[in-house]
Design a protein that fits this description.
By secondary structure, this protein is α+β, with helices and mostly antiparallel strands. The protein has five helices and five strands. Keywords: Signal.
Length: about 210
Amino acid sequence: MPAPRGTSVAALLGGLLLLTACQSGSDTGASGSSGPSAPQASATTATASGAPAAGAPSDSAAPTAPAVSAPKQSTAPAVPAKATAPAFAGCRNLAVSAEVKSAVTTAYRRTVPVLVHVAPVPGQFFYGQCGSVRYAATRFQPTAGATEAELVNLQDEGTATKYFRAAAGGGWVYVATDGFPRSAHGCGDIPEIPNALAKAWHNCPDGH
């Protein structure tokens, strides 16, 4: 009877050893299969900690160039240019002859046909030249034989200085008259008379 009991114990021990060996092999297989999965987790971590994936919205906006505004145009109205007398070099005052006075008087009579009996006021005749153009300025008074109509016209016309010019090779032409009242600068304010000549005439004072 003892012999069979020993055999049973030996068989039991053998079974335990076999079971232990199987369990150990299973654990080793599980450990081997789980090893390669570690790099995958690491790669995922690296992706999460790195730059955002393509297409993902960015928190910081891209820098933009500052807007450049076009310069504003001035809306102030343009100031009209003041009429100025023509500028000529070589303007000079000249001594006037009776022939020049007669030609200027004829030019005035053509402009105002009603005035026939008129002549320049003595001591009030200005004559000069700028370049090839001659200029004259004078007031007129009635002469013997003046009609009532002439005298009436000269009440106003006779108080204003008249201005004439003659281009080279041409006759005298009436170009301007003083205003009412006369300007304080005389012929210096007449655009048709060059400034240099007006200065030479001392602005054509009354009683010259």
